[in-house]
Predict the 3D structure of the following.
Amino acid sequence: MTAMEALRLWPIPALSDNYIWLLADGDGNALSVDPGEAAPLQEALASRNLRLRAILLTHHHPDHIGGVAALTGQQPIDVYAPHDERIGVATHRVDDGDRIDLPFPACSFEVIAVPGHTRSHVAYHGHDLLFCGDTLFSIGCGRLFEGTPAQMLESLERLAVLPGQTRVCCGHEYTVANCTFALTVEAGNRALRARLEQALAARAANRPTVPSLLSDELACNPFLRIDAPGIVQSLGAGKTDPSDRIARFAALRRLKDSFRA
C-alpha cells in the first residue's frame, strides 16, 4: 500500500462557504489545512477518532487561520505558514521551494509561492493533492486583494503545469457561481456545461463540488484558459489588447469582480 492509498481526505464545511481540509492516515494521525474555525474540525476529528498533528496555512485571512489558536491551545501542534507577521500562530515558516516532511501522518509537500490574492500566499503540493487556499478555485481564482494581475497570472500558471491528476483542494465552495460566470465568456465550452451540471447535482445533494481534477480545471476554468479563442473573442478588442496576456487576464478578473450570478 502506498502512502497516498493509506491517506484519506475530507473537506470539512466551515463558516458560510469555507472548507477546512482534513487528511489522515489509518493510525488516527491527521493534518489540517486552513482551519478558519475550530468547532467543525474538532467535531470531525472526534467523530473519526483522529488526533491532529499538524496544520498547514496558505495565507493570513481570518477565515483560514481563525481556528488555529483554539486547536493548538490544549496540545502542541506544528503550524506551517508563510513568512507574514499577520500569522502569529505559526511555529514553522515556509518559503517557495521548501519541502515539508511530516512523520505523522507520513506525507510530504512542496511549498509553492502563489502571490496575488495576498502578497504572501502559498500552496502545498504532494501526493497528487494541491492545497491552494484562495488562489485557484474550481472554475475560478481569488480576488486580487494585495497582488497584481501579473502576479496572479504567474501564480496560476505555476499551478497549471502540475500533473493533470492533481486534486485541487481549494478554500471555498464557489463552483456553481464560478461556472455561471465562466459560461458568459466561453458559452461554447461543453466540458464547462457538464461541470456546471455536476456541480448543481452535488449541491442539490448537499455534497461538496471539490476537490476537482486539475485536468478538468484546464478544460473549464477561464482563468487557466485566457488564450482560448472563445475567451479572447468574448473579451473584445475594446477591453484589452489580444496580444497582451496580462491585460487580458486583468480584464477577465474585472468582469468576474462585477459579476452577479
